[in-house]
Amino acid sequence: MNTTPAIADLSPLNRRAEQRAWNWYDWANSAFYTTSLTVLFGPLMITVAGRAAGCGDSADDTCSKTVSVLGLHLAAGSLPSYLTSFATIASAFLLPIVGAMVDRSGRKKMHMAWFAWAGSFFAALLFFIHGDHWQLGAVAVIAASVLAGCSLVAYYAMLVEISEEHERDAVSARGWAFGYLGGGVLLVINLGMVLGHDALGLDKELAVRLALLSAAVWWAAFTIIPVRRLRNRPAQDVVLESGGLVHRSFGQLWATLKDLRNYPMTLTFLLAYLFYNDGIQTVIGSAAIYGSKQLHFGDSVLIATILLIQFVAFGGALLFGRIAQKHGAYRCLVGGTMGWMVIVVLAMFLPAKNIVLFLLLGVAIALVMGGTQALSRSFYSLFIPRGRAGEYYALYNACERGTSWFGTLLFGVMFQVTGSYRPAIVSLIVFFALGLFFLLRLDPERGIREAGNQTPETV
């Protein structure tokens, strides 16, 4: 009797290989967000714009003299914040259109690559911020930020293609962890160069400019790895629209916005993410101000804390990924949001100049930050209707970028009213409370069914 030998199913191995390649883009783009946007760009831009405004070489965020931007007179000390806000608002309008285009093209890998390489080109132009020449840097940081967001729309959309529902928490967690590690490694190198510029025979500003250039090169170079190892897939389950590419993209966007009412759980999660992510971004952005102005720590403590958070977040993302496999991403996000509420309350009562407690709070921030950010990305994928990953992830990024100024506004208003950063930091609990409110109203299994996806064993 002849028997045909069973053929092994190699699809899990092939998926894992693509997932590892996909993780490399987290490693690549995190350098730009960490070295450039978070740490080095703002102070350099304030110094250079301050010279142009007449504040001198010692310009800081208190420089009230202005520079002219498209006829508007903006304080040099506030210029980086205005540039970031403009890029954020522009992204909120542009990303949904990019998402629709990504879904239609069937070339997500190449969309990610070209947006990334274009963004890294503009990021490299930050090297030319020097003397009192700030204008090119202003244009470059806006373009690089918007293009980075466009690349992430395509990148996130590929998560749906390279992983099954039960794999996504672990894949996303590894990606975020890899990103924290990559961003942290380059940041250590660059801070070493900036702080030790005299020993290297470099002017401090030149060292900062070289660090900004290195982040752009890192971003562009490591993007090559996923481009070589990932594969494009044909677009699927896309409702056809007539006309050219731009017309079809707008048509699909409008259709998706109208159709969103058919997915109430997807909308509920987007509302939850809008609020708790705004709280997260504000805590991250305000931590240095709080540590410096309220707790009276010097630059060395703040730099050490930034690096500590970067590397502990690597472990936090992996830890939450493991917990999610056993207990589900939904419980982890609920628990993580509660953890953020505890953190801002503890921060309010943190005594000044107590380094140990400040570092312990930094560890707590890193753990929940890594976990909530990683799992939000993968959990949301379960609520996306098939064939709409690019556009729905664009809405996800638009919720993040288009509203991320609410928290900073509340933080600033509370400081202005009270004259203290303590009530300002604890006021952010309202964003986590609202996020938790919508999370608790979420029925994950219903949302997954409505989107037509397979429900994992643990949600």
Automatic annotation (TrEMBL):
Chief localization: membrane
GO cellular component: plasma membrane
Residues spanning the membrane: 82-102, 114-130, 136-157, 177-195, 207-227, 267-289, 301-321, 328-349, 355-375, 395-415, 421-440
Compartmental location: Cell membrane
Superkingdom, taxonomy of origin: Bacteria
GO molecular function annotations of the record: transmembrane transporter activity
Residue span(s) of domain Major facilitator superfamily (MFS) profile: 31-447
Record key words, sorted: Membrane, Transmembrane, Transmembrane helix, Transport
Pfam families given in the database record: ATG22 (PF11700)
SUPFAM superfamilies xref list: MFS general substrate transporter
UniProt name for this protein: MFS transporter
Species for this entry: Nocardioides humilatus
UniProt lineage: Bacteria, Bacillati, Actinomycetota, Actinomycetes, Propionibacteriales
